[in-house]
Amino acid sequence: MSTTTTGLRRAADVSKGDQLPPLTLKVTRRDLIRYSGISSDCNFIHYSDKRAKEAGLPGVIAHGLLTMGMVAKIVTDWVGDPAAVIDYQARFGRPVVVPDDEAGTTIEVTAKVGLVNEDNTARVDIYAKCEGQLIFGRCYAVVRLA
């Protein structure tokens, strides 16, 4: 778990298979309202149960890019510098339903180093689950190591 003085994780300390510390995220309707305002994505499926169900969804769902951004925290916390993330991709698999209560919903995130490259980069494979189901089909980040 060594880092250099710049805060980046050192390549010599990273191996394929290394597990990152798990992350638990909470998503509430309030988060969705805030994100709608910032992103200008005010689609009814992100705040109206009635309209979400009319669209064939089980209820209000979180914005895909909001969940993707929140999940990236597992990598940025681990690598030590958000600017060290040089690629981040996710294939959306299932929506994150957010109930209309104070508790919201929980996303459990785990990750492991899938590959360490000779150019001081590493691919981190990310697994995010809501209610025991993966929300991304494939999700990974490539990070620059010190």
Secondary structure: number of strands? 6
Poorly predicted runs of 5 or more residues: 1-6
How much beta, percentage-wise?
25-35%
Shape: elongated
CATH architecture of the domain at 11-25 and 62-144: Roll
Largest β sheet strand count, sense and barrel closure: 6 strands, antiparallel
Number of helices: 4
Helix vs. strand class: alpha+beta
Say what the CATH topology of the domain at 11-25 and 62-144 is: Thiol Ester Dehydrase, Chain A
Radius of gyration: 17 Å
Identify the CATH class of the domain at 11-25 and 62-144: Alpha Beta
Please describe what this structure looks like:
Strands 1, 2, 3, 4, 5 and 6 form a six-stranded antiparallel beta sheet that branches. The protein is 22% helix and 32% strand. With 146 residues, the chain is α+β, with helices and mostly antiparallel strands. The two termini are 12 Å apart. It has a domain at 11-25 and 62-144: Hotdog Thioesterase (Thiol Ester Dehydrase, Chain A, Roll), CATH 3.10.129.10.
Summarize the topology.
Layout: E1 23-27, H1 29-39, H2 49-54, H3 64-71, H4 73-79, E2 85-92, E3 105-116, E4 121-130, E5 133-134, E6 136-144
Antiparallel strand pairs: 1-3, 2-6, 3-4, 4-5, 4-6
